[in-house]
Amino acid sequence: FQTTDELNELVFQCIQKIKRDNDLIRPVVAALCKEFLAMYFVTSDNDKIYFRKLLLTEVKKEYVSSINFDSNEWTKEKADRIMILISTLFNEKIIDDKIMLSIISDLKKNIVYEPEKTQEYYEHVEKTVQLLSCLVSSIAINPESKQIFEGLDVFLNKQMEIYEEVKCIQKKTRLICKN
């Protein structure tokens, strides 16, 4: 690559392709990304800027935007596509277990029942449950992913029992978790 802009453009195109294309194309693009992980651009200071670092930095920005429910830019469709992006990269082992555990932990923190919060807070809980559901349903089930999900079903069941009692989130959201 001649410039960092060219490498940034490649990262951008890969992310957009995974977010926008169908289930058959996504794994192909992710496999291509995996091949690009070691590519880099050498700056004028002889620093190496790796495709992997740029990709993961952009995915992190995407993730943060997906849980920023108060943003005017937030939509369920955009957030779901970001969860699919994350799961696709995880399935291809570009996002490692440590990062995925961090994401799941972060989402779980947003689901934990907190008494006497605003309705807006509980709406954020609903959105988080839906995002977690989208993320989990997009991950290929294998022994490694099963370890990442260990205890998640118990956690969700416990939280949904609490929400069932206090009835501060919609029934359909509680049912998503039970399934």
Q: How would you explain this protein's 3D organization?
A:
With 179 residues, the protein is mostly helical. It is 68% helix and 3% strand. It has helices at 4-20, 25-36, 51-66, 76-91, 97-109, 119-137, 143-148, 152-166, 171-178, and strands spanning 40-42, 48-50. A hairpin with a 5-residue loop joins β1 (40-42) and β2. α1 packs antiparallel against α2 (25-36), α6 (119-137) runs parallel beside α9 and α8 packs antiparallel against α9.
Question: Which SSEs are present, and which pair or pack?
Answer:
Elements: H1 4-20, H2 25-36, E1 40-42, E2 48-50, H3 51-66, H4 76-91, H5 97-109, H6 119-137, H7 143-148, H8 152-166, H9 171-178
Antiparallel strand pairs: 1-2
Helix pairs in contact: 1-2, 1-3, 1-4, 3-4, 4-6, 6-9, 8-9
Short description:
The protein contains 9 helices and 2 strands, in the order ααββααααααα. With 179 residues, the protein is mostly helical. Helix 1 packs across helix 3 (51-66).
Structural class: mainly alpha
C-alpha termini separation: 47 Å
Number of helices in the DSSP assignment? 9
Average pLDDT, rounded to a whole number, is: 90
- Which of globular, elongated, flat, extended, rod-shaped describes the shape? elongated
The run of helices and strands is HHEEHHHHHHH
- Rounded radius of gyration (Å): 18 Å
> In terms of per-residue confidence, which ranges show pLDDT below 50 for 5 or more consecutive residues?
none
Query: Taking strands numbered 1, 2, ... along the chain, how are they ordered across the largest sheet?
Result: 1-2
Helical proportion, percent range:
55-70%
Largest sheet: 2 strands, antiparallel
Q: Per DSSP, what share of the residues sits in E-state strands of 2 or more residues?
A: under 5%
Number of strands: 2
